[in-house]
């Protein structure tokens, strides 16, 4: 850690390390928001090029939140009305010794969950997926979104609530 | 239960009592299922190596770009400084010097900072430094002007042909090409031409034509005739008279078959061109022809 403070992001090794640690998260973050892989890839590209251009001004410990801010601002003005159609890598088709009925039921539930996720407000979906898929702590998500941990907990709660309501058809 | 208990539950932060209560609710089963199913979710493939490669490329391109841009930026910086200096000095100089000028057929009344008055005759220029006025009553003159100088420190008029210094008086200066005339109406005026100083008491006039100086009498406590819209001449070569006519009426004056070095004594109106032309032509027994803003004087015998 001590050595890091002397090195800034302009050092190739520091920059590469930040990239390895953060690029996937940024990709997912933007993907969860917009459901568009191309945009997510562009956001990663844009954020890291910006970081390189400003590497002298950004402290290594601030690099992550800088990247999130750049990626976020990039699509700040993009019309949010675009219908989100997320697709998730399918892991349910593993061979199991469960009964066909059970597998079918599982798949039906998964489909329901997918639909419910797609109809969530953007910030609730992003929070839910960052936590569930990427295992991000509420505090980390709060930093990415630039809001308080309390607000993230609230979003999480609301996300779960509306997922359940959708699935149970309430 | 807290209003964000679902978030706490996902994070395993509920107390045992809260958890037991939650488990009793009918929604618990679905929540449990959501949690279990969501754990199977995965994000789409992200090709990290490909992303790194394309960033690395852009990075290098941007780096070389910086080298192309920087000399231009430096040039801009220098240009900005130079522009600022020029603008600044221009502004400084322009506040330093107040200047007035008149065109053909135009007079101007100017009040100097010490309430001295200057009346500028046609096609003349007057400039003075406002900042240094308190210590240095100094004006630059091109052309002709009448001065009523307030009493005070030395007052100097600089012209291309000579220096006129006074303490407080009324006088007229005419400084045209090869023609320099100072007339003192009140007080005492000191005229320096080529380092040679001449004291000019009230009622005297000093005239220099092409380097030859002559003194003549003028009216004490009078005023130059041009202030009353008349130009007067006393033994002045005709071409200076014609020049003055040109200045006062903004006309183009030409002479044909006439000796313009002959001396002219008389005056002409500065308001009525017809009358002025007659005032010049009659005593000299020449004719004139007025066409638009062109005047031609010619000898009577000429065809």
Would you give an account of this structure?
Chain A: This is RNA polymerase sigma-70 factor (ECF subfamily). Chain A: GO terms for molecular function: DNA binding; sigma factor activity. Chain A: It holds the Pfam family Sigma70_r4_2. The complex is a heterodimer of chains A (170) and B (303). Chain A folds into 2 domains: 73 residues; 69 residues, Arc Repressor Mutant, subunit A. Helix content of chain A is 68%, strand content 0%. With 170 residues, chain A is mainly α. Chain A contains 8 helices and no strands. Chain A is elongated and about 60 Å long. In chain B, β12 and β13 form a beta hairpin. Chain B has 3 domains: 34 residues, no CATH class; 125 residues, Jelly Rolls, CATH 2.60.120.1440; 71 residues, Phage tail protein beta-alpha-beta fold, CATH 3.55.50. Chain B is of the alpha+beta class and 303 residues long. In chain B, the strands form 3 sheets. In chain B, strands 1, 2, 3, 4, 5, 6, 7, 8, 9, 10, 11, 12 and 13 form a 13-stranded mixed β-sheet that branches. A 3-stranded mixed β-sheet of chain B has the order 15-18-17, covered by helices on one side. At the A-B interface, α2, α3, α5, α6 and α8 of A face α1, α3 and α4 of B.
């Amino acid at each position: 850690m001590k050595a890091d403070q002397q090195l800034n992001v302009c050092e190739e090794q520091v920059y590469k390390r930040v990239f390895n640690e953060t690029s996937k998260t940024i990709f997912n973050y933007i993907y969860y928001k917009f459901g568009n892989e191309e945009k997510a890839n562009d956001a990663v590209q844009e954020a890291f090029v910006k970081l390189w251009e400003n590497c002298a001004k950004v402290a290594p410990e601030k690099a992550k939140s800088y990247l999130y801010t750049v990626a976020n601002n990039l699509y700040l003005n993009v019309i949010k009305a675009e219908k989100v159609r997320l697709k998730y890598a399918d892991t349910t088709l593993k061979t199991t010794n469960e009964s066909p009925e059970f597998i079918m039921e599982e798949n039906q539930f998964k489909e329901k969950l997918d639909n419910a996720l797609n109809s969530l407000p953007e910030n609730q979906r992003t929070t839910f997926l960052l936590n569930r898929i990427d295992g991000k702590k509420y505090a980390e998500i709060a930093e990415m979104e630039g809001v308080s941990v309390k607000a993230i907990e609230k979003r999480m709660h609301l996300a779960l609530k509306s997922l359940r309501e959708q699935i149970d058809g309430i | 239960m807290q209003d964000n208990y679902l978030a706490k539950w996902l994070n395993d932060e509920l107390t045992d009592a809260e958890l037991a209560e939650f488990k009793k609710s009918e929604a618990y089963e679905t929540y449990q299922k959501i949690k279990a199913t969501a754990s199977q979710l995965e994000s789409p493939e992200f090709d990290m190596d490909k992303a790194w490669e394309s960033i690395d490329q852009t990075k290098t391109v941007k780096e070389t770009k910086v080298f192309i841009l920087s000399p231009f930026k430096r040039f801009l910086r220098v240009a900005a400084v130079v522009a600022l200096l020029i603008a600044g000095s221009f502004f400084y100089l322009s506040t330093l010097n107040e200047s007035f000028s008149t065109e053909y057929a135009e007079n101007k009344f100017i009040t100097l900072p010490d309430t001295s008055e200057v009346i500028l005759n046609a096609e003349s220029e007057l400039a003075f430094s406002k900042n240094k006025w308190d210590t240095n009553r100094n004006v630059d003159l091109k052309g002709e002007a009448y001065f009523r100088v307030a009493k005070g420190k030395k007052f100097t008029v600089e012209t291309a042909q000579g220096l006129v210094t006074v303490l407080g008086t009324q006088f007229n200066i005419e400084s045209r090409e090869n023609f320099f005339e100072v007339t003192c109406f009140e007080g005492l005026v000191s005229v320096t031409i080529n380092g040679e100083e001449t004291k000019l008491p009230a009622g005297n006039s000093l005239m220099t034509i092409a380097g030859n100086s002559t003194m003549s009498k003028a009216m004490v406590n009078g005023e130059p005739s041009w202030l009353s819209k008349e130009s007067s001449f006393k033994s002045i070569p005709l071409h200076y008279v014609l020049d003055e006519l040109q200045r006062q009426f903004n006309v183009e004056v030409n002479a044909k078959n006439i000796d313009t070095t002959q001396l002219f004594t008389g005056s002409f109106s500065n308001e009525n061109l017809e009358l002025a032309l007659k005032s010049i032509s009659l005593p000299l027994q020449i004719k004139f022809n007025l066409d638009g803003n062109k005047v031609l004087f010619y000898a009577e015998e000429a065809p």
